[in-house]
Every structure is written in structure tokens, then in C-alpha cells.
């Protein structure tokens, strides 16, 4: 006869990193709380988890592992100026120094927190530099809530349209707005 499928609760719940960091929302804490084994970004994440979850999280469940998504950066470890120039040319940029301004989608993200004011400040203070502006794709979906350390925050009136229009109005030969880039690692490569 056939064997019954075991319940999911008889398994081991494993959580691997999502995003590029910890500490900007409650998301990593919820993942840690609900995992039997939690692969964290770095050893520094464990004190952060313990501070917020206390005895609800046992140290033995934590494994500092880095972020597998960033393994793709190994390809870029031997970047040379020719490759950097090729990436910049493909983006319509020249050989000038390039600043990458990248934002998270939450209200603590640079673009939601400072709007285009940060871009204006960079343009004013770094007149000889080019600037690439990008963001987490969720920013463009007008997020209506987010989870912070101890509460759910509602942001029902946030609309990304004004931000996108304002950024696009700033786009020129010095400013490239790439809100949904094909390859974020190439943008990192193009930046200085």
C-alpha cells in the first residue's frame, strides 16, 4: 500500500536570508521566530535577534551563513576598467565617477524618506559625478502597510507616482533612473 504523506509539522523549518540586510523591519525577526534553523546574514545578527525576541529564540538555532544571493558578486571580484566601461556605456553613462542611489521600498527607504531631496543634494554636492537611481521593485507597487519591530504600520496614502514622475523629470545625461533594473550587480559594478 501507499504510505501517508507526513505532516509538515514533523519536518524541520529552515529559513535562509531574504534581502540584503537585517534590522530594517520585523520581517527577519518573524522568520527567525518561526524557524527551527535560521541561517542569518552574519554573527552580528544574533545579538539583534536576542535583543528583540529574548528567550523565544535559542542560540543553537542560529547559523551565520552570509547571503547566498550575493554569491553572484564573486563573478565581479576581478572587475577591470574595461568591463566597468562596457557596463557604463550600455547604461548610457560615460567614464565619470558614478554614485549608485538605491532604496528599499519601506517608509525608512531613502526615496520614501527623503523623496528627491537626496538626489538634489547629491547632484549639488557631486557636480562632477553621474548618479544612478534604483529601488526595490515593491516601491512601485504602492505598498499600503509594512511591519516594523513591534507593530504593523499602515501607509494607505503612499503613491509612488509622484516619486517616479519627479525622478524621471531629473533624468538627464548625469542622472539615470532605473527603477526596475535587469541586473543590480551590473549597477554595483558601474558605481564608484
General description of the model:
The radius of gyration is 20 Å and the shape is globular. Helices cover 30% and strands 16% of the residues. The model has no long low-confidence stretch (mean pLDDT 81). It is α/β, with parallel strands linked by helices and 192 residues long. Helix 3 crosses helix 7. The strands form three sheets. Strands 1-2-3 form a three-stranded parallel beta sheet, with no helix packed on it. Strands 4-5-8 form a three-stranded parallel beta sheet, with helices on both faces. The chain has seven helices and eight strands. Strand 6 and strand 7 form a beta hairpin.
Short note summarizing the structure:
Helix content is 30%, strand content 16%. With 192 residues, the chain is α/β, with parallel strands linked by helices.
Instruction: Tell me the total number of β-strands.
Output: 8
Main sheet attributes: strand count, strand direction, barrel closure: 3 strands, parallel
Give the integer mean of the pLDDT values: 81
Q: How far from one another are the termini?
A: 63 Å
Q: What is the string of SSEs from the N terminus onward? A: EHEHEHEHHEEEHEH
Q: Rounded to an integer, what's the Rg over CA atoms?
A: 20 Å
Give, in spatial order, the strands making up the sheet with the most strands.
1-2-3
Helix content: 25-40%
**Annotation field: number of helices:** 7
Structural class: alpha/beta
Give the amount of beta strand, in percent. Answer: 15-25%
Estimate the global geometry from the Cα principal axes.
globular
Report the uncertain regions.
none
